[in-house]
Structure formats: C-alpha cells, structure tokens
Design a protein that fits this description.
Oligomer: single chain
Structural class: alpha/beta
Strand order of the largest sheet: 2-1-3-4-5-6-7
Organism: Sinomonas terricola
Keywords: Gluconate utilization, Oxidoreductase
Pfam families: 6PGD, NAD_binding_2
CATH topology of the largest domain: Rossmann fold
Number of helices: 13
CATH architecture of the largest domain: 3-Layer(aba) Sandwich
Distance between the termini: 50 Å
Helix content: 40-55%
Shape: elongated
CATH class of the largest domain: Alpha Beta
Family: Belongs to the 6-phosphogluconate dehydrogenase family.
Order of helices and strands: EHEHEHEHEHEHHEHHHHHH
Number of domains: 2
Largest sheet: 7 strands, mixed
Radius of gyration: 20 Å
Protein name: Decarboxylating 6-phosphogluconate dehydrogenase
C-alpha cells in the first residue's frame, strides 16, 4: 500500500518511518523541506495511486482546517482523508461533511504513543464508516504494536468517535500523572525517605500501580534526580479541557480529571515539586517542551 502523510513533526516523522518498516510506501510532506519527501501537497498527491489515502498529522484547529480544505479542492471522489491529529470530535464531523460534498471519504483516528511510538508502536482509535476503516487497515496494522489487533486497535464508532475516545484517554492521562506527581511530592517532603528514585523503581514490578508512566517517572528521576533543571510550569494541549467540558455536558462526575486540569493552571502561578514531575512526565512520553528552572 502507498499512502501520503502530511505533517512530519515529533510524531508524524516517526510514523512515516514505522509505516515504512512495516512494508508500506509512504510519501511525506512537511513545510520543513529538510524532512519532506516532496516540495508541495500537489506533488504528494501526484505520487499516490487511486483511490488515494492521505493521513493528516498536523496541529489541531486552524492548521488542520486549512489542510483539509486544500485536500478537498485537490483530491478526487473516492479518495480517503485520515485525521490522526488531536482534533476535537466536533471538528471531525464538520470536516467529514465538508469533504463529503466532493465525494471524499473521511476517518478520524486518535493516536497514542508519543515519541516512543516508532519503537513501541501506537495505540489507535478509529472513527468512521466500516468500509473506510477497512481501507486504512494496512496503515493501522503497520503503526500499531505487533500482536493481537484488539490489543492496540479499535474501530470505536462513527465519525468523531476516534477522537472522542482519545480525548477521554488524555483526560485519564491527566489524572494518572497528577497522582504519581503528588505521591512524588509527598515522598520528597519526608526526610525518612532516603532513596526516592529507588522507591519508585521498586514499584515497577509486581505492584498494582506499575505502568509505563511509572517507568517514565523513574527515567525522569534518573536523568535529573532532583528535577533541578526543569520549571514547574505545565502546559495543557486542550484534550483535558474538552474532557471536563464533556463531563459537565453529560452530567458525568469527573473530579480526578478536573482537579488534575486545575492543578496545571495552578502550576503557572506557584512553585510545585509535583508539577515539576508532571512536566517531566509530559516530556518523557510525548517530547512536550519543558521550561528551564528559574
């Protein structure tokens, strides 16, 4: 299979490489021509066999809007666009309707795996018509971890369902990181604890709190034991806010996720060891930028 990939940033660049290692042909385009295979989107489209499949991996919002609009003008009926970025699910429905006017199909796909996806594979959550998801299955199979498909891929439902599932995934991620970070701050505050990194390391095997996030916490402490080189300012990229908004809209109590989001707001005002750890964890799994310590 040969598909196009627009957006070769932190994730898109590695996704192109993983897809190629999985035996697929990929033509990538990025505004940074140092990493791009072609100079323009027109050139990318020209390399693809019909019906064309184009995966969009650019920042949510205005950038995605512009790319989808351009593809709507340049692709042909029967072609397929996959939005693998972090678009809000309501935007998927708008983009699908916009492309449908030109006879172009649309699938949204939540992607989890961060900067480690090249090595480990990506967890994938797809939304759209069954036949359109099936068209893209060779790509999904190349990107996900090896093993049973059900362990790393799900066709969640119709248009928007993939990004809705990824939104909730990221909301849960907020709560998990905040719990680890608060535990870190409490352990660090008590002088009875003489081996802080070793304490978390001992939790990595056999305990009920073991996880990949815990592994990354240990890695962060090994690289910077006192988190002295990182500021406690923690950004949020949108999905946590959307999760809380959806919880309110559906009268679903989500106190842990909501508190974790508000903790990020608080991090922008006061110094906090816990928020240093949240910032360090975001950098570890997603390559998100941190701020140097003041």
């Amino acid at each position: 299979m040969h598909f196009g990939l627009i957006g070769l940033g932190k994730m898109g660049f590695n996704m192109r490489e993983r897809a190629r290692r999985g035996g697929l042909d990929v033509t990538g385009f990025d505004r940074n021509l140092d990493v791009s295979d072609v100079a323009t989107i027109d050139e990318l489209i020209g390399t693809l066999p019909a019906p064309r499949v184009v995966w969009v991996m650019v920042p949510a919002g205005e950038v995605t809007d512009k790319v989808v609009a351009e593809l709507g003008e340049k692709l042909s009926p029967g072609d397929l666009v996959i939005d693998g970025g972090n678009s809000r699910f309501t935007e998927d429905q708008r983009h699908a309707a916009q492309l449908a006017e030109e006879g172009i199909r649309f699938v949204d796909c939540g992607v989890s795996g961060g900067v480690w996806g090249l090595q480990n594979g990506y967890g994938l959550m797809a939304g759209g018509a069954a036949e359109d998801v099936e068209t893209a299955m060779p790509i999904f199979d190349a990107l996900r971890p090896k093993g049973e498909r059900a362990d790393s891929f799900v066709h969640v439902g119709g248009i928007g369902a993939g990004h809705y599932a990824k939104m909730v995934h990221n909301g849960i991620e907020y709560g998990l990181m905040q719990s680890y970070a608060e535990g870190y701050q409490l352990l660090a505050a008590k002088d009875i604890i003489t081996d802080l990194p070793g304490t978390f390391r001992a939790w990595q095997k056999g305990t009920v709190v073991r996880s990949w996030l815990l592994d990354l916490l240990v890695k962060a402490l090994e690289e910077d034991p006192g988190l002295e080189n990182i500021d406690d300012y923690v950004e949020d990229s949108g999905e946590g806010r959307w999760t809380v908004e959806e919880a309110i809209a559906n009268a679903v109590p989500a106190p842990a996720i909501t508190a974790a989001l508000f903790a990020r707001f608080e991090s922008r005002e006061d110094s906090s060891p816990a928020m240093k750890m949240v910032s360090a964890l975001r950098h570890q799994f997603g390559g998100h930028a941190t701020r140097p310590a003041k």
